[in-house]
Amino acid sequence: LQFVESGGGLVQPGGSLRLSCAAPESSLEDYAVGWFRQAPGKEHEGLICISTSDRVVYYAGSVKGRFTISKDIPKDTVFLQMNSLKPEDTAVYYCNTQQNGVDIWGRGTLVTVSS
Q1: Do the bridges between strand 67-72 and strand 9-11 make them parallel or antiparallel, or are there none, so unpaired?
Q2: I need a surface site. Which of 9, 83, 91, 101 has the fewest CB within 10 A?
C-alpha cells in the first residue's frame, strides 16, 4: 500500500483547495484513512479521519467546519476539501493509514496560505 498526495499549492487567505490521496493498485475500502499536517517547526498534527464505514472523526477543532473528508472507492482516492483557509493552515499535508500495525505515509503535499 502506498499513498500519493497531490493538490497542494499557494492560495490566498479565505480560499479553498482540495487535496487528493491516491492509493494506486490498492483497495482503500479496507482502510481507515486520516489526514495529518506538519507546519514549519511544529509537530505532526492529526486533522480528520474517515473509517471504512464512512464515519468521520475530527481530531483538530481548528479545522472543524472548514475541512471535510471524502473518498472515491472506485478511484481508490481520499479527498480533503479545505475551505476558508488561514495562514496558520500552511503546512505539508499527509494522508495516513495503518497496514498490519504499521503506519503508512505518503510524501505529502505543501499547502501555503498567503496573500
Answers
A1: unpaired
A2: 101
Find all residues with CB under 8 Å of 84, minimum gap 6, and list them. Answer: 14, 16, 66
d(CA 36, CA 3): 13
Handedness of CA 21, 103, 59, 10 (dihedral sign): negative
pLDDT in tens, 82-109: 999 999 999 999 999 998 889 999 999 9
CB 84 within 8 A of CB 27: no
> How big is the CA angle at 72 (ends 49 and 65), to the nearest 5 degrees?
40
Q: Is 62 helix (H, G, I), strand (E, B) or coil?
A: helix
d(CA 37, CA 47): 7
11-53 pLDDT per residue, tens: 999 999 999 999 987 778 889 999 999 999 999 999 999 999 9
Longest dimension (CA), the chain: 43
Enter the C-alpha cell of residue 5: 498526495
